[in-house]
Design brief:
- The protein is mainly alpha-helical and about 250 residues long.
- It has six helices and no strands.
- It has one domain: Four Helix Bundle (Hemerythrin (Met), subunit A) (Up-down Bundle).
- About 60% of the residues lie in helices and about 0% in strands.
- The chain starts with a helix and ends in a 22-residue tail after the last helix.
Length: about 250
């Protein structure tokens, strides 16, 4: 990891806090001819992206448990006022909708892409069975490697991890960072109910500021996605298409 990446991991409130967890696998021969270092790098990036989603989903679950009094305007809570409670409740609902939509898209996209790979492996296995039709020219180990990498590239597209998607990925990370900040605010508000005599000054952003930033970033994210969907390939689907030139397993 680079020094900036290490610094980000040291901040427990950042979206990158768990990036030090890596997916490590050393494929034995002959698998190493198909699962290449480049393939392993893509697997690791996908693992990191999905782990971030799981973390944000966990924070949303904690927010729902912490928000039982927000709808009531903060009664019985020193740390959350009536106005903040209403804002926090709206923020919670909108964040839940956004996080669910994004995570569902990622999960279904990765599942579909991997289903294609599993289908191809079953097809190859059937061809190699006694009495099978065998493999055509270009459908050996090298062809399978190319097919495998195209499937992974499709996953990268679904997860917004391709190079041309860096802008929209950056905005998405800012949105998810707002959700984590919201979780931090909720935790500090809960703590404030126990230490009210110390007053404010914990350095946490207010929920109104976080909510405003969240809505602004979501609007930018949607605008970018719509613009990219209008272009060839799109941003959420065919960007990482699993078919292409190169022969072998192209069907």
């Amino acid at each position: 990891m680079t020094p900036p990446e290490i610094s980000a991991c040291l901040d427990p409130s950042s979206l990158s806090a768990l990036d030090f967890l890596r997916l490590v696998y050393h494929p034995p021969a002959p698998l190493d001819a198909v699962i290449t270092p480049e393939s392993l790098h893509m697997y690791d990036r996908a693992f990191c992206a999905l782990l971030r989603c799981l973390r944000v989903q966990f924070v949303m679950g904690e927010l729902f448990r912490a928000s039982k009094t927000w709808d009531g305007g903060g009664r019985g809570r020193v740390g959350v006022g009536r106005g903040e409670g209403r804002t926090a409740a709206r923020f919670r609902n909108e964040a839940q909708h956004f996080v669910n939509a994004i995570c569902s898209h990622f999960e279904s996209g990765v599942t579909a892409a991997w289903g294609v790979m599993e289908g191809k492996m079953r097809e190859v296995e059937d061809r190699l069975q006694p009495g099978g039709v065998g493999l055509a020219a270009g459908e050996g180990v090298e062809g399978l490697r190319r097919y495998h990498e195209r499937v992974l590239e499709r996953m990268m597209g679904v997860l917004l991890l391709r190079g041309r998607q860096s802008v929209v990925r950056g905005v998405l990370e800012e949105v998810l960072g707002c959700v984590l900040g919201f979780g931090g605010w909720a935790a500090s508000a809960s703590a404030a109910s126990r230490t009210a005599e110390k007053g404010e000054g914990d350095g946490e952003k207010g929920v109104e500021e976080l909510y405003k930033t969240f809505k602004s970033k979501v609007k930018v994210f949607i605008t970018i996605c719509r613009g990219m969907e209008e272009k060839k390939g799109g941003v959420l689907g065919a960007e990482g298409g699993g078919r292409g030139k190169g022969g072998g397993y192209g069907g």
